[in-house]
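Input record, target 12 of the design panel.
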């Protein structure tokens, strides 16, 4: 498994480049956690939580697509309980890990392209209203959205580590080391 973006971060690279490199690095680390799994393993609950590795991949692809829609202005202004996919955080029997990983890569590529093309990271965007949103509109900058996507991936990478170790004992760190040495 190879990193999904350059990790070069020189003095002339700039903030946008550095932030995108950090997000790409976190994505790569996350994908090491799900590398080598079968579809059955990706659907398996290995803890008391409902989380599965395939479900986390699916969720993170959706996270990137939904935040992209906030940046590009195509997000629905309001999302109700009925609009939420009850299978959004789990991998169903008719889904494959390969398809979710492909969707994850496509969402990452589209999200990064949009952030690279964004004229101003300080541009404000209004977030959709969810059932758990405060009553007043929430406004973030594009930079805040980018940092939030980083946090989401990092947050769920921790979940994925625990689920994977409980599933088969595999260590993300060991898989990253093998990948760095040309294996995995």
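The sequence produced for target 12 reads:
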């Amino acid at each position: 498994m190879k990193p999904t973006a350059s990790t070069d971060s020189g003095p002339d690279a700039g903030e946008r480049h550095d932030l995108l490199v950090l997000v790409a690095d976190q994505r790569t680390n996350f994908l090491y956690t799900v590398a080598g799994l079968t579809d059955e393993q990706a659907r398996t609950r290995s803890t008391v939580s409902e989380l599965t590795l395939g479900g986390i991949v699916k969720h993170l692809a959706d996270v990137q697509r939904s935040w992209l829609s906030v940046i590009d202005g195509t997000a629905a202004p309001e999302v109700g309980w009925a609009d939420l996919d009850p299978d959004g955080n789990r991998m169903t029997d008719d889904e494959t890990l390969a398809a979710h990983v492909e969707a994850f890569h496509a969402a990452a590529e589209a999200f990064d392209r949009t952030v690279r093309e964004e004229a101003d990271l300080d541009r404000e965007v209004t977030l959709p209203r969810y059932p758990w949103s405060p009553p007043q509109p929430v406004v973030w900058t594009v930079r805040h959205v980018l940092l939030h996507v980083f946090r989401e991936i990092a947050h769920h990478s921790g979940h994925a580590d625990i689920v994977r170790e409980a599933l088969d004992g595999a260590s993300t760190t060991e898989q990253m080391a093998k990948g760095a040495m040309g294996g995995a």
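Residues 41 and 167 are 8 Å apart (CA to CA).
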